[in-house]
Amino acid sequence: MDIYRENVLDHYKNPRNFGNMDKPDAKFKDSNPLCGDEVEFYLKIDSGLIKDVKYHGQGCAISQASASILSEKLIGMKISDVMKLEKEDVTAWLGSELTPSRLKCALLPVMVAKAAINEFEKK
Ligand code: FES
Questions:
Q1: Which domain holds residue 34?
Q2: CATH code where residue 54 lies
Q3: C-alpha distances in angstroms, 22 versus 3, 32, 78, 83, 90?
Q4: What is the number of domains present in the chain?
Q5: Predicted confidence band of residue 1 (pLDDT cuts 50, 70, 90)
Q6: Whether pLDDT at 100 is above 80
Q7: Is 112 in contact with 40 (CB distance < 8 Å)?
Q8: Ligand 1 pocket, mutate which of 104, 110, 111, 112 (most atoms under 8 A from CB)
Q9: Looking at ligand 1, which residue's alpha carbon is closest to its atom 3?
Q10: Nearest C-alpha to atom 2 of ligand 1 is from which residue?
Q11: Cα 63 to ligand 1 centroid, rounded to whole Å
């Protein structure tokens, strides 16, 4: 088994930062329209920095592992840097063997985290 696949399976089976958050500063929920799989992110934000992250979700191994990996990356990140995350960042974390339909799975959590920040910035 290659190291990327092992990492994805580990995050899927042992999700990091999975759960609820009391009074998040930002939250957003969305689903992949192709399959209905869902991800919801909750963020604590202070002085432009992400201080804490929790998420909920249900779906395929790639979407849920991607959410878990993203949750770890986000903690301590500037919100301006989160908005700059791209497809290439996500594929670097997950491994490059993603087919286009799997790429949609992998990108769902990043889209949701960005949408949460967009909502936060509108306030
Ligand atoms: Fe639904 Fe992956 S199959 S997000």
A1: 3-122
A2: 3.90.1010.10
A3: 35, 26, 21, 24, 28
A4: 1
A5: low
A6: yes
A7: yes
A8: 104
A9: 60
A10: 105
A11: 6
